[in-house]
Structures are given as C-alpha cells and as structure tokens.
Amino acid sequence: MHGKHKHSKSQVAITAHDTGTPNRWLLPVLLVAQLMVILDITAVNIALPHIATDLNLSGSSISWAITSYSLIFGSLLLFGGRAADLLGRRRLFLAGLVIFTSSSFMSAMATSATTLFAARAGQGVGAALLSPAALSIITAGFHGEARAKAQAAWGAVGGAGAAIGVLVGGILTQATDWRMIFYVNIPVAALLFVASLKLIPADTQKPRWRGLDLPGAALATTSLAAIVYGITQANSAGWTSVQTHLCGLGGVAGLIAFAVYERHTDRPLLRVGRMADRAVGGGLALQLVAAGSIFGLFLLCSLYLQNVLGWGPLNTGLAFIPLALAAGVGAHLSGHAISKHGVRVPLAGAFAIAAIGMFLLSRVGPSGSYVADILPGMLIAGLGLGVAVVTVSMSVLAGARSDEAGMISGLASTGHEIGGTLGIAIFSTIAAGASGAILGPQVATGIGHAFLIAALVATLASGAAVALLPRTDHFLAKLRLNPQAMPVH
C-alpha cells in the first residue's frame, strides 16, 4: 500500500488462509472449541443426580438440564450456518464463544432449576453460533488433502467428545462439585478468544443482515421445543391431557408451517424439496433414531450405575470407556462397509445389532452388576450405534450438491442434536414411569422398560433402513460424485 510492505496480522492471516496454508495452530483452536461444546452434553449426564439433589429436581424434568441445551443448539444450527456466511465467520465464532462462556458462568451460579435451564439454553445459542462458524472456517481455510484431514479430525472430536465428556464430568463432580463442569469453560474460552483473534482470518466483508431467515429459525425452534416439552411433561400432565395434545399437535403443525414457509421464502434455511432424495430424507429420519438411541444409552446407563448400583461419578465415567471403544470400532468399520455396500445394508445390520444390545440391557434389575448386566449390552449396542451414527451422516452428506454443502452439513448436524434431544426426553420419561421418580433404586424397573422400548425402536429402524434408503448401486454412484462425504480413517 503506497509503496509500504507492512501488513497487519489479520492481513497475513487472510493471505495464508486464501493460499490453503493456514497457521498450524488454527485447527487445534477450532477443535478445542468444538470439544468444549460437545463436553457440555455428556459431562452433565454424569452430574445429573448431584444437580437434581442440589436444585431439588424431580421426575423427568431433570432431563431438561441436558435438553434445554441440546434442543436450542440443534434447532439453531441451520441458522448459525447461514449467519456465518452472511455476518462473517470470525465475527460469529467470537460472538458464539462470548455467549457460550457467559452462559456457562450463569449455569455454574444457578440456584434454581429455572435459572439453570435458562442458562443452559443460553449455552445452546452460543454453541449454535460457534460450531458451524468453526466448521466453515475449516472448509474455507483448508484445501485438498489438508481439508480432508481437518474434517476427519473434526469428526473424531465429535465421536470422542462424548466419551471424554463422561470422564471429565466424573472427575470434576467427584473431586469438586458439579458446578465446576461449567466453571472450567471460562479459562478455556478466554484462551480460545485470545488465540482466535490472532489465528482466525479477519472478515473482509461487512455483515449482511438481509437474508437471515429469523422467522424460519424461530418457527422451527419453538415447534421442536413444544414437542419436547409435551413429551417430558406427559407423565405428570397425562398422556391424554389437553396440555400434551396441544404441545404435540401444535409442535407438529409448527414444523409443517416451517416447511411451507421455507418453500416460499427467497433465502431459506432449508430447501425442503431436498428431502425427496432418499439418501437425504431417509438418512435424516434414521439419524434422529440413531442419535436418540446413543444419547439415551448414555443417559440410561449413567442413571442405572449411579442411582441403582450406587456408583460415584468418577467410577461411572470410567465405566463408559468400553462403550466409547466399541462405538469407535463401529465408526471405523462403517467406512469400509459403506464403500462396498452403500448405506442400506450396513445401517440395517447396525440397528439390528444395537437392538440386541438394548434388549440385553433391558434385563437390568435393582440388584444387578456392571460386568454381568451392563457391560455385554453396552458393548454390543455401542458397536451397532457406532456404525449407525456414521452411516446415517454419510447418507445425508453424500446427497449434497456442490452448491448446498453448507446447508446439508447443517442439516446433518441438526438431525444429530435434535435426535439426541428427543431421545433424552423420551427415554427419561419412560424411565421415570408412572411414579415419576428418576432417582433411587426404584428407577431400575423404569430403566429396564426404557431399554426394551429402545430395542423395539432399533428393530423397527432396521426394517425402515431397507425401505427408506437408496439401493447399493444407486448410493455408490452418488458417492463417486461426492467422495469427500466419505469418512477418512
């Protein structure tokens, strides 16, 4: 500029970013941010009994310590991805980080269920802005083989985050207090904020507020929240009550209205017509089941180990290591299975295996043991669901055209979070049973019933995979046109 060769740090970052050689510390910063977001789901799983005792939670309402976060997170992911494109990736990443950290502090300071649930919802808003912005920074900043490795690392964080979360939650809850799960986010986020200012390329364009589909985002979020609320309150209000019917039917009507609205807006969050693609629509439907099953598996096993067997948080966290390893093996095997057999056959088999594991877990009782009653079913269900979670994601992503990769990626992430939210809501409600109790040894019967329902759902999903997903030859042809959708091992 005017004969000078000096450049600001942001300009240097942009140059490196555009040439496909970003700073080597950029990816670790983004991965740590994503890990922090994921940890706050499963870490809270381990702390649920302590939170319930401290804040006087009862019945299935305890699940809202998780669902108030994951519901908002999942509902706003499509909006977050669109906002990152229009408002700027770094701006949105930093804004999400600030909101997430502030809400973490509020969660740690909560003295009632209402304040905790509200703070957790705030964390969900921050995560929904931060996570898609981080992924879009990776997509734009890395190229070729570097991008494939970066996206594989991103996927690995998503898979390992659940297991790391239960360990971290167990250690912090056992050694200190459940509030430390949220306090620990603050120093980590502060370091991430400083590093992000140095490493993430500055946004070169001004924010473009036109095109943000705020009505669509609000309609989708409130509709999903109504459905989840209706399910979690059905035991206390009654499954045939006016409240349950209004929430359930109102939520479904809202989602239908969302679909109609999205078809008639110029810049939709979601191109609803893409659901007609069997790889996308069928994959999304089964992704809800897969995510709901694995979230439910973590929740129900945690409740049984702590509330029935009387285990402490740390031992409970360690007990999940075999499940994490089994799911990791399943995730690895899924890539090879998909490349040879498409998604229909591997997914049908995966759900069938998961159904066997869930059925074994349904036999748990008040005087059961970890080795005999939990571990076998946990390993089998974990293996099957490890295959299923990756397979449904690949089904959705392989259906993406080049001009809609961001939207379809957001759809896949949304399906995972919403499926998990519904799984937690449904299975915790079943576990609470007629008594409404989810704490104490008496919950063993309800947990067994929940696992039995999960086995039935997985069995039905196995058959649905054959009916809904494309044939092997059709899917493999689609995959050859979109090879980047395949997981990297």
Structural notes for this entry:
It contains 20 helices and no strands. It is mostly helical. The longest helix is centred in the first third of the chain and has 32 residues, at 144-175.
Task: Compile the SSE list and pairings.
Elements: H1 9-18, H2 26-55, H3 64-75, H4 77-87, H5 89-109, H6 113-141, H7 144-175, H8 180-183, H9 185-199, H10 214-232, H11 234-237, H12 242-264, H13 278-308, H14 313-319, H15 321-341, H16 344-361, H17 370-398, H18 405-432, H19 443-468, H20 472-481
Q: Tell me, what's the shape? A: globular
Question: Helical residue percent?
Answer: over 70%
What's the SSE pattern?
HHHHHHHHHHHHHHHHHHHH
> Roughly how many Å is the radius of gyration?
22 Å
State the secondary-structure class: mainly alpha
Q: How many β-strand stretches?
A: 0
Largest sheet: none
| pLDDT < 50 runs, ≥5 residues | 1-20
- Give the termini separation: 45 Å
Beta-strand fraction estimate: under 5%
Mean pLDDT: 82
